[in-house]
């Protein structure tokens, strides 16, 4: 039997199992382009607006969050798209690739499901190759659909295809890194952590390299993220950086294959350290276990987002220099509104920080579902630990973690604003408006808890709600959404004391909704059966 026997059947199984995820990712990125392009197209009618944008992109803080800044001497719509979106699309698809690879390799071995599959006529490397085939197909589908959206908006076809394919290759590089990590460690969390650490290191190298020299320095080339950006689509297209991605992927796959052939099935090359025979005092409560499971993801999420918002805060000092062009541009006029542009800009960034904290809160809350599906919740509930205590422990840790991510972000933003030399808004004002988003975030966490408690299979719905909240927060004015559509988002009810007075009725209402949702979660979890393995 070949080591690849059964690969086709496993590909079909993965596609069927992850069909909703695949559709969401395949449509999500093209929709991102579709939502962002109107801003750049409208700017193309205003040369001063584009050049003001180019001046902002050349600033060190924006270079850290966008790209190397090529094409800014004569900024065009295509150059703006390539400079400002490639980084974030690569990060999104890299996360997708990492999660998919770990989910269908190391996580399957850890749960022992792959042992059942291997008992059939299935080769040793079939599962790894099958998930790679699916990840490649999804990235290519995203590339094709995204290129179609770009070409439909009058951007050059060849450059559009080059940019989207370069993004796909960069993302697949991190998928290959995840496959290597899955051979090293015995646990899915470890493989995911190693892969995300590699992604973070690549982001840091790209940032340091691009800030050293406009257009990128040699340090930038150490990062797979930079390979997609250095293709310089819409400015000076060159295909050869894509070859770096192809070579890296092939080398990583060969390494993963060699490691997989030499390790025991179900084990990793690095054995786990032996633990204590008895749990310490700090691990004798469900809340302590939940904290131990989430502490590292909380640390890196809070740190990464805080650094990003700190850099964003330093850009505020440049807003007055672009005030006239920003006010004349219809896109920025809709986003920033009337009044103090500096305060309006900071208010928008605080909103982005809250959205980032919301994504963390949903992931942390749905950790309970993963524990139940893995059978660990059943083992804990077989002890004197009650259902309410177990669920409550997870919700307390995820809620506090969400608050920490939010406050870390807004405090870092406030520090960046203060460092830029701007007197208003003050550090305290930025921190205050950030804290007002906490009730809205708890509504999202409570909704995730209620769905998990009553209908676990419906928990993906909470991500649709999150996506809708993001669209309303960022594009409600641009799309001319009616009032009732805006009110469906919990973030709409959050007051902005930087530009208006605090409406404590709204704050209290959001807090009440969060309490009701949490109560529904506890009631539902006590009533339904707990899944068993």
TrEMBL record:
Keywords (A to Z) from UniProt: Membrane, Transmembrane, Transmembrane helix
Transmembrane segments: 22-43, 85-105, 126-149, 161-184, 191-209, 239-260, 298-319, 344-366, 390-423, 429-454, 461-484, 504-525
Keyword hit for Membrane: yes
Keyword DNA damage: no
Stated name of the protein: ABC-2 type transport system permease protein
Organism: Isoptericola luteus
């Amino acid at each position: 039997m070949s080591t690849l026997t059964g690969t086709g059947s496993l590909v079909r199984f993965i596609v069927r199992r992850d069909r909703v995820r695949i559709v969401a990712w395949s449509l999500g990125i093209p929709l991102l382009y579709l939502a962002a392009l109107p801003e750049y197209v409208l700017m193309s009618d205003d040369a001063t607006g584009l050049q003001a944008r180019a001046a902002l992109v050349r600033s060190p803080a924006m270079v850290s969050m966008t790209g190397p800044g090529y094409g800014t001497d004569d900024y065009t719509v295509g150059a703006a798209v390539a400079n400002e979106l490639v980084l974030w699309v690569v990060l999104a698809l890299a996360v997708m690739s990492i999660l998919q690879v770990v989910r269908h390799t190391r996580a399957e071995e850890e749960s022992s499901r792959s042992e059942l599959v291997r008992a059939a006529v299935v080769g040793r490397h079939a599962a790894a190759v099958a998930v790679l085939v699916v990840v490649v197909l999804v990235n290519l589908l995203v590339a094709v659909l995204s290129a179609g959206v770009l070409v439909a908006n009058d951007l050059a076809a060849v450059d559009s295809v080059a940019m989207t394919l370069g993004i796909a290759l960069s993302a697949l590089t991190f998928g290959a890194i995840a496959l290597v990590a899955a051979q090293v460690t015995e646990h899915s969390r470890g493989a995911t952590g190693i892969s995300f650490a590699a992604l973070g290191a690549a982001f840091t190298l790209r940032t340091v390299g691009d800030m050293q020299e406009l257009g990128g320095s040699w340090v930038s080339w150490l990062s797979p993220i930079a390979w997609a950006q250095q293709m310089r689509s819409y400015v000076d297209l060159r295909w050869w950086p894509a070859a770096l991605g192809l070579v890296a992927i092939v080398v990583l796959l060969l390494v993963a294959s060699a490691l997989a052939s030499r390790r025991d099935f179900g084990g990793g090359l690095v054995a786990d350290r032996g633990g204590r025979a008895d749990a310490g005092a700090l691990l004798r409560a469900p809340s302590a276990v939940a904290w131990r499971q989430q502490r590292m993801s909380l640390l890196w999420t809070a740190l990464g987002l805080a650094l990003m918002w700190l850099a964003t805060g330093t850009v505020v000092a440049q807003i007055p220099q672009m005030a006239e062009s920003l006010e004349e541009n219809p896109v920025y006029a809709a986003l920033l509104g009337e009044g103090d542009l500096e305060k309006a800009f900071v208010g928008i960034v605080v909103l982005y920080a809250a959205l980032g904290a919301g994504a963390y809160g949903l992931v942390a809350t749905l950790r309970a579902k993963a524990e139940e599906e893995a059978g660990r919740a059943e083992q804990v509930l077989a002890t004197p630990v009650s259902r309410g205590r177990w669920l409550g422990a997870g919700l307390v840790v995820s809620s506090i973690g969400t608050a920490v991510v939010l406050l870390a972000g807004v405090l870092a933003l406030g520090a960046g604003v203060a460092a830029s030399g701007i007197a208003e808004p003050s550090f305290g004002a930025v921190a205050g408006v950030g804290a007002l988003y906490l009730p809205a975030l708890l509504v999202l966490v409570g909704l995730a808890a209620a769905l998990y408690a009553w209908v676990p299979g419906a928990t993906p719905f909470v991500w649709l709600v999150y996506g809708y909240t993001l669209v309303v927060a960022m594009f409600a004015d641009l799309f001319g959404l009616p009032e009732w559509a805006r009110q469906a988002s919990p973030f709409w009810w959050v007051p902005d004391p930087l530009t208006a007075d605090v409406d404590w009725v709204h704050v209290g209402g959001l807090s009440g909704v969060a309490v009701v949702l949490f109560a529904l979660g506890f009631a539902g979890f006590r009533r339904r059966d707990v899944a068993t393995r």
